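Standup notes
- DV: blocked on the single-chain target, sequence here:
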Amino acid sequence: MGPDVTRSAPRNWALSKVGKVYLQFRSFFFDPLDLLKKLRAAPYYIVNWAEYRKRNRDPRFHIRIGELAFMTRDRFASAGAAKGHYFFQDLWAARHLYVRGVREHMDVGSRVDGFVAHVLPFCRVTYVDLRPLPAALENLEYRQGSLLDLPIEDCSVRSLSCLHVLEHVGLGRYGDPVDPEGYLRAAAELSRVLAPGGVLLLSTPIGQERLCFDAHRVFDPGTVAEAFGGLDLLEFHLIDDDGLRILPDASFEVARRCDYGCGLFVFSKLDGGDNGRVHP
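- DV (later): unblocked, structure below
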Protein backbone atom coordinates (compact mmCIF):
# COMPACT_ATOMS: atom_id res chain seq x y z
CA MET A 1 0.00 0.00 0.00
CA GLY A 2 1.13 3.53 -0.63
CA PRO A 3 2.65 5.81 2.00
CA ASP A 4 0.12 7.58 4.20
CA VAL A 5 0.16 11.25 3.21
CA THR A 6 -1.47 12.23 6.48
CA ARG A 7 1.67 11.40 8.50
CA SER A 8 4.72 13.02 6.91
CA ALA A 9 4.91 16.20 9.03
CA PRO A 10 7.37 16.48 11.95
CA ARG A 11 6.12 14.64 14.99
CA ASN A 12 5.59 17.37 17.62
CA TRP A 13 4.04 19.78 15.16
CA ALA A 14 1.85 17.12 13.56
CA LEU A 15 0.42 16.10 16.94
CA SER A 16 -0.62 19.66 17.81
CA LYS A 17 -4.16 20.87 17.13
CA VAL A 18 -2.93 23.18 14.39
CA GLY A 19 -0.94 20.36 12.85
CA LYS A 20 -3.94 18.03 12.76
CA VAL A 21 -6.10 20.73 11.12
CA TYR A 22 -3.38 21.19 8.49
CA LEU A 23 -3.20 17.44 7.81
CA GLN A 24 -6.96 17.21 7.38
CA PHE A 25 -7.06 20.27 5.12
CA ARG A 26 -4.26 18.82 2.97
CA SER A 27 -5.96 15.45 2.60
CA PHE A 28 -9.26 17.03 1.42
CA PHE A 29 -8.02 20.01 -0.62
CA PHE A 30 -4.36 20.96 -1.25
CA ASP A 31 -1.10 21.39 0.64
CA PRO A 32 -0.79 25.03 1.82
CA LEU A 33 2.83 24.48 2.89
CA ASP A 34 3.69 23.32 -0.62
CA LEU A 35 2.15 26.53 -1.95
CA LEU A 36 4.33 28.57 0.43
CA LYS A 37 7.42 26.67 -0.77
CA LYS A 38 6.55 27.53 -4.36
CA LEU A 39 6.13 31.20 -3.49
CA ARG A 40 9.49 31.15 -1.73
CA ALA A 41 11.14 29.50 -4.72
CA ALA A 42 9.60 31.76 -7.40
CA PRO A 43 12.24 34.55 -7.25
CA TYR A 44 15.05 31.96 -7.58
CA TYR A 45 13.30 30.40 -10.57
CA ILE A 46 13.04 33.77 -12.33
CA VAL A 47 16.70 34.65 -11.66
CA ASN A 48 17.88 31.21 -12.80
CA TRP A 49 15.73 31.37 -15.93
CA ALA A 50 17.14 34.76 -16.92
CA GLU A 51 20.75 33.73 -16.20
CA TYR A 52 20.46 30.47 -18.16
CA ARG A 53 18.84 32.19 -21.13
CA LYS A 54 21.59 34.82 -21.21
CA ARG A 55 24.47 32.32 -21.03
CA ASN A 56 23.23 29.38 -23.12
CA ARG A 57 24.60 29.10 -26.69
CA ASP A 58 23.46 25.56 -27.50
CA PRO A 59 20.20 25.56 -29.56
CA ARG A 60 19.46 21.97 -28.49
CA PHE A 61 18.96 23.12 -24.92
CA HIS A 62 17.13 26.42 -25.33
CA ILE A 63 14.36 27.20 -22.86
CA ARG A 64 11.02 26.44 -24.53
CA ILE A 65 7.66 27.47 -23.10
CA GLY A 66 6.08 24.08 -23.75
CA GLU A 67 8.81 22.34 -21.70
CA LEU A 68 8.84 24.55 -18.63
CA ALA A 69 8.79 22.87 -15.20
CA PHE A 70 8.85 24.64 -11.82
CA MET A 71 10.87 22.53 -9.40
CA THR A 72 13.05 25.16 -7.74
CA ARG A 73 11.44 24.40 -4.36
CA ASP A 74 13.70 21.32 -4.25
CA ARG A 75 16.57 23.61 -3.20
CA PHE A 76 14.89 23.92 0.21
CA ALA A 77 14.40 20.16 0.70
CA SER A 78 16.77 17.65 2.31
CA ALA A 79 18.77 15.15 0.27
CA GLY A 80 16.40 12.36 1.26
CA ALA A 81 14.35 10.88 4.10
CA ALA A 82 16.16 8.16 6.05
CA LYS A 83 13.40 7.93 8.63
CA GLY A 84 9.80 6.92 9.14
CA HIS A 85 7.73 3.76 9.09
CA TYR A 86 8.34 2.73 5.49
CA PHE A 87 12.08 3.35 5.49
CA PHE A 88 12.78 1.29 8.61
CA GLN A 89 10.17 -1.45 8.15
CA ASP A 90 11.35 -2.19 4.60
CA LEU A 91 14.97 -2.49 5.73
CA TRP A 92 13.96 -4.58 8.75
CA ALA A 93 11.95 -7.06 6.71
CA ALA A 94 14.52 -7.31 3.90
CA ARG A 95 17.29 -7.95 6.42
CA HIS A 96 15.15 -10.60 8.09
CA LEU A 97 14.81 -12.53 4.82
CA TYR A 98 18.49 -12.14 3.97
CA VAL A 99 19.71 -13.38 7.36
CA ARG A 100 17.37 -16.38 7.22
CA GLY A 101 18.60 -17.24 3.72
CA VAL A 102 15.08 -17.08 2.24
CA ARG A 103 15.02 -17.68 -1.52
CA GLU A 104 11.24 -18.07 -2.05
CA HIS A 105 8.90 -15.55 -0.47
CA MET A 106 5.32 -14.33 -0.72
CA ASP A 107 4.23 -10.76 0.00
CA VAL A 108 0.74 -9.30 0.22
CA GLY A 109 0.30 -5.62 -0.57
CA SER A 110 3.62 -4.19 0.65
CA ARG A 111 5.49 -1.50 -1.27
CA VAL A 112 6.91 -2.77 -4.56
CA ASP A 113 9.28 0.22 -4.73
CA GLY A 114 10.42 -0.43 -1.16
CA PHE A 115 10.54 -3.81 0.56
CA VAL A 116 9.87 -5.93 -2.54
CA ALA A 117 12.57 -4.16 -4.55
CA HIS A 118 15.02 -4.61 -1.66
CA VAL A 119 14.75 -8.43 -1.74
CA LEU A 120 14.43 -9.17 -5.49
CA PRO A 121 18.23 -9.35 -6.04
CA PHE A 122 18.49 -12.42 -3.79
CA CYS A 123 14.95 -13.80 -3.49
CA ARG A 124 12.08 -14.81 -5.76
CA VAL A 125 8.90 -13.03 -4.65
CA THR A 126 5.29 -13.89 -5.37
CA TYR A 127 3.41 -10.63 -4.91
CA VAL A 128 -0.35 -10.42 -4.30
CA ASP A 129 -2.35 -7.19 -4.47
CA LEU A 130 -5.92 -6.15 -5.16
CA ARG A 131 -4.79 -3.64 -7.77
CA PRO A 132 -3.01 -4.43 -11.06
CA LEU A 133 0.78 -4.29 -11.21
CA PRO A 134 2.06 -3.27 -14.67
CA ALA A 135 5.60 -4.56 -14.30
CA ALA A 136 7.73 -7.39 -15.65
CA LEU A 137 10.67 -7.91 -13.30
CA GLU A 138 13.09 -10.76 -12.83
CA ASN A 139 12.33 -12.79 -9.69
CA LEU A 140 8.85 -11.24 -9.34
CA GLU A 141 5.58 -13.11 -9.94
CA TYR A 142 2.40 -11.04 -9.62
CA ARG A 143 -1.00 -12.47 -8.69
CA GLN A 144 -4.04 -10.25 -8.46
CA GLY A 145 -6.08 -11.08 -5.41
CA SER A 146 -7.72 -9.83 -2.24
CA LEU A 147 -6.32 -10.15 1.26
CA LEU A 148 -9.83 -11.23 2.21
CA ASP A 149 -9.65 -14.19 -0.20
CA LEU A 150 -6.04 -14.99 -1.06
CA PRO A 151 -5.51 -17.16 -4.17
CA ILE A 152 -3.26 -19.43 -2.11
CA GLU A 153 -3.71 -22.94 -0.73
CA ASP A 154 -4.01 -23.62 2.99
CA CYS A 155 -0.75 -23.98 4.95
CA SER A 156 1.41 -23.58 1.84
CA VAL A 157 3.58 -20.49 2.43
CA ARG A 158 6.75 -20.78 4.49
CA SER A 159 7.87 -17.14 4.22
CA LEU A 160 5.19 -14.44 4.16
CA SER A 161 5.00 -10.68 4.68
CA CYS A 162 2.34 -7.99 4.85
CA LEU A 163 3.73 -4.54 5.67
CA HIS A 164 1.55 -1.52 6.47
CA VAL A 165 -1.52 -3.14 4.90
CA LEU A 166 -3.68 -4.61 7.67
CA GLU A 167 -4.83 -1.18 8.89
CA HIS A 168 -6.43 -0.35 5.52
CA VAL A 169 -8.50 -3.49 4.93
CA GLY A 170 -12.24 -2.89 4.96
CA LEU A 171 -12.15 0.93 4.60
CA GLY A 172 -12.72 1.01 0.83
CA ARG A 173 -9.62 3.15 0.24
CA TYR A 174 -8.09 0.76 -2.28
CA GLY A 175 -11.29 -0.50 -3.86
CA ASP A 176 -11.87 -3.26 -1.33
CA PRO A 177 -15.38 -3.70 0.14
CA VAL A 178 -16.23 -1.70 3.25
CA ASP A 179 -16.11 -4.04 6.25
CA PRO A 180 -15.45 -2.84 9.82
CA GLU A 181 -14.08 -6.32 10.61
CA GLY A 182 -11.90 -6.43 7.51
CA TYR A 183 -8.67 -6.48 9.49
CA LEU A 184 -9.83 -9.59 11.37
CA ARG A 185 -10.71 -11.38 8.15
CA ALA A 186 -7.34 -10.39 6.68
CA ALA A 187 -5.53 -11.75 9.74
CA ALA A 188 -7.44 -15.02 9.37
CA GLU A 189 -6.41 -15.31 5.71
CA LEU A 190 -2.74 -14.69 6.43
CA SER A 191 -2.90 -17.28 9.21
CA ARG A 192 -4.66 -19.75 6.90
CA VAL A 193 -2.01 -19.74 4.17
CA LEU A 194 1.02 -19.80 6.51
CA ALA A 195 2.65 -23.24 6.62
CA PRO A 196 3.62 -25.01 9.86
CA GLY A 197 7.11 -23.79 10.66
CA GLY A 198 6.52 -20.74 8.44
CA VAL A 199 7.22 -17.11 9.36
CA LEU A 200 4.99 -14.06 8.87
CA LEU A 201 6.48 -10.56 9.00
CA LEU A 202 3.78 -8.01 9.73
CA SER A 203 3.83 -4.26 10.34
CA THR A 204 1.00 -1.88 11.15
CA PRO A 205 0.41 1.46 12.92
CA ILE A 206 0.50 1.14 16.70
CA GLY A 207 -0.47 3.53 19.46
CA GLN A 208 -3.63 5.11 20.85
CA GLU A 209 -6.27 2.89 19.22
CA ARG A 210 -8.56 4.68 16.77
CA LEU A 211 -9.87 4.94 13.21
CA CYS A 212 -8.79 7.72 10.81
CA PHE A 213 -11.37 7.20 8.08
CA ASP A 214 -10.69 6.37 5.32
CA ALA A 215 -6.91 6.43 5.71
CA HIS A 216 -6.15 3.74 8.29
CA ARG A 217 -6.66 2.28 11.73
CA VAL A 218 -4.17 2.64 14.58
CA PHE A 219 -4.09 -0.54 16.68
CA ASP A 220 -3.25 -1.34 20.24
CA PRO A 221 -0.52 -4.01 19.92
CA GLY A 222 -2.69 -6.39 21.93
CA THR A 223 -5.42 -6.09 19.30
CA VAL A 224 -2.99 -7.29 16.63
CA ALA A 225 -1.72 -10.15 18.78
CA GLU A 226 -5.31 -11.21 19.45
CA ALA A 227 -6.23 -11.06 15.74
CA PHE A 228 -3.40 -13.52 15.06
CA GLY A 229 -4.17 -15.60 18.13
CA GLY A 230 -3.71 -18.85 16.25
CA LEU A 231 -0.05 -18.03 15.59
CA ASP A 232 2.93 -17.66 17.89
CA LEU A 233 4.36 -14.18 18.37
CA LEU A 234 8.13 -14.62 18.32
CA GLU A 235 9.28 -10.99 18.21
CA PHE A 236 7.90 -7.49 18.60
CA HIS A 237 9.85 -4.37 17.69
CA LEU A 238 8.73 -0.75 17.50
CA ILE A 239 9.31 2.33 15.39
CA ASP A 240 8.22 5.10 17.76
CA ASP A 241 6.65 8.47 17.00
CA ASP A 242 10.01 10.04 16.15
CA GLY A 243 10.49 7.53 13.34
CA LEU A 244 14.27 7.67 13.68
CA ARG A 245 15.07 4.11 14.76
CA ILE A 246 13.75 0.65 15.57
CA LEU A 247 13.39 -0.15 19.27
CA PRO A 248 14.20 -3.88 19.49
CA ASP A 249 12.19 -6.20 21.73
CA ALA A 250 9.86 -3.40 22.78
CA SER A 251 7.07 -3.94 25.29
CA PHE A 252 3.42 -3.45 24.48
CA GLU A 253 3.24 -0.84 27.24
CA VAL A 254 5.87 1.32 25.54
CA ALA A 255 4.06 0.92 22.21
CA ARG A 256 0.76 2.03 23.75
CA ARG A 257 2.30 5.38 24.64
CA CYS A 258 2.84 6.16 20.95
CA ASP A 259 0.43 8.29 18.97
CA TYR A 260 1.39 6.84 15.57
CA GLY A 261 4.17 4.29 15.95
CA CYS A 262 4.74 1.20 13.84
CA GLY A 263 4.74 -2.29 15.29
CA LEU A 264 6.99 -4.91 13.67
CA PHE A 265 5.65 -8.37 14.45
CA VAL A 266 7.23 -11.76 13.71
CA PHE A 267 4.62 -14.53 13.85
CA SER A 268 5.07 -18.25 13.21
CA LYS A 269 3.23 -21.53 13.06
CA LEU A 270 5.67 -23.60 15.05
CA ASP A 271 5.54 -27.33 14.48
CA GLY A 272 6.46 -28.75 17.84
CA GLY A 273 8.37 -28.03 21.02
CA ASP A 274 8.38 -24.76 22.95
CA ASN A 275 6.12 -22.28 21.20
CA GLY A 276 8.51 -19.42 21.85
CA ARG A 277 5.65 -17.03 22.56
CA VAL A 278 6.55 -13.48 23.49
CA HIS A 279 4.92 -12.19 26.68
CA PRO A 280 5.10 -8.38 26.41
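- Follow-up: The first helix runs from residue 11 to 14.
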